[in-house]
Amino acid sequence: SLSAGLDLPGRFLFATLTLMTLIAILVFIEEAVYIYRKIPSSKRSIIIWINAAAPVISTTSCIGMWVPRSTMFTDFTAGIFFAIVIHKFLMMMIKECGGQKVLLRRFENGHFTITTGPCCCCCLCLPRVPITRQTLFWLKLGTFQFAVFRPVLIFLSIVLWTNGNYVLYNLSPKGPALWISCFIGALTLFALWAVGIMFRKVRILLKCKNIIPKFALYQFIVILNHLQTTIINIFATQKIIPCAPPLSSTARGSYIAQQLLIMEMFLITVISRVVYRRKYHDLEPPECVAEEAGDKKQTP
């Protein structure tokens, strides 16, 4: 077994990382109870989903660390969960603005700037898009498609893997792993683009609700769970991470990625508790803001 093959420092490391995962789960449960009691029901489930991202990734990484053969299933579970969280984060920004109707009234003559990352940050010639019910629908569809299609593609990958046709680290053009990974990558970019467009528009309005630290935590989870893991897996595939019997290069890369994620998600869970637990003042309705602006114009 894995624990029998570990030396004393290895056992201490595994025990410490497991303890960090358990603490992250307890912190999330305590935070979920607080949110359930203090947050209005319209925002409650969305905020709990977003706060659950880091502890869920930490838990799946811990299971994959102890049971190496389950790595594919744990990675897929974390991927499916975070695909849903990306959609929930976009919906949270809309909810924090007062809902779709209030957001449309507040930005009645406003425009979305679509020259933002990760898709079109260099395309400065693109026009600004007016904020309408239709453009909001397309933004929500941009994240919703990811929450729907990624689980479908992951299910297809598992079916092919059980049949021996899908090899995670085989990125040859003849294998399905490369094409499924590229398609998932394209869907991810579109979903992140939709969130970035919305954030760029509401970040000043929602500054009083700490939307910038919340978005930063969300971005850290994206980078660490996707980019960091992908880079480590590429290094392992290219044998840059050397093998250490009985572990191959790919197995060592997987261990390194999982152990880093456990530590990083533990920190993000603790920081999220501080950021989301603060009490915020509700935004004033757009009618009140317009009246205050009119009074200021009349005062001189």
From TrEMBL:
<feature type="transmembrane region" description="Helical">
    <location>
        <begin position="12"/>
        <end position="34"/>
    </location>
</feature>
<feature type="transmembrane region" description="Helical">
    <location>
        <begin position="215"/>
        <end position="236"/>
    </location>
</feature>
<keyword id="KW-0812">Transmembrane</keyword>
<dbReference type="InterPro" id="IPR005178">
    <property type="entry name" value="Ostalpha/TMEM184C"/>
</dbReference>
<feature type="transmembrane region" description="Helical">
    <location>
        <begin position="176"/>
        <end position="195"/>
    </location>
</feature>
<keyword id="KW-0472">Membrane</keyword>
<feature type="transmembrane region" description="Helical">
    <location>
        <begin position="137"/>
        <end position="161"/>
    </location>
</feature>
<feature type="transmembrane region" description="Helical">
    <location>
        <begin position="256"/>
        <end position="276"/>
    </location>
</feature>
<protein>
    <submittedName>
        <fullName>OSTA protein</fullName>
    </submittedName>
</protein>
<feature type="transmembrane region" description="Helical">
    <location>
        <begin position="73"/>
        <end position="91"/>
    </location>
</feature>
<dbReference type="GO" id="GO:0016020">
    <property type="term" value="C:membrane"/>
</dbReference>
<keyword id="KW-1133">Transmembrane helix</keyword>
<feature type="transmembrane region" description="Helical">
    <location>
        <begin position="46"/>
        <end position="67"/>
    </location>
</feature>
<dbReference type="Pfam" id="PF03619">
    <property type="entry name" value="Solute_trans_a"/>
</dbReference>
